[in-house]
Amino acid sequence: MHYTFNLTNTFGLTSVLTKQQSLEESFVESSISDLSILPSGPVPPNPAELLSSVSMDTFLKQAMELFDHVVFDTPPVLAVADAQILANKCDGVILVVSSGKTEIEEAAKAKEI
Q1: Residue 106 sits in which domain range?
Q2: Which keywords annotate this record (predicted)?
């Protein structure tokens, strides 16, 4: 996401979860009105553990109080556990597939997870 909006990824979600930076100072206002972005931040040695942590639950509660909608852009659901962990913490999931590229069987398997 930080590539799309031409943002640095020096600080972000991992910085908030590891208490290196506060939630409020980590969000970046985008060029789109009323859209704030929180980059992922540096890749930690234990992403799944960090996303499963109490810090993540606290982050979600704070983010939902600050914003009308909270959307996560995750790695592919079949590649790593990150998307599965976050899906279990969210109200809904939008599965994005590449038309003509994603195999139907892979999309079906991702949907089941």
Answers
A1: 72-113
A2: ATP-binding, Kinase, Nucleotide-binding, Transferase
Question: Three-state SS across 34-99?
Answer: CCEECCCCCCCCCHHHHHCCHHHHHHHHHHHHHCCCCCCCCCCCCCCCHHHHHHCCCCCCCCCCCC
Task: Find all residues with CB under 8 Å of 11, minimum gap 6, and list them.
Answer: 20, 21, 26, 39, 41
Give the chain's length: 113
Q: CB of 78 within 8 A of CB of 113?
A: yes
**Are residues 60 and 41 part of one domain?**
yes
pTM of the predicted model, to two decimals? 0.82
d(CA 51, CA 80): 12
pLDDT averaged over 10-residue windows placed end to end, the chain, 113 residues: 70 92 87 90 91 96 93 90 92 91 90 84
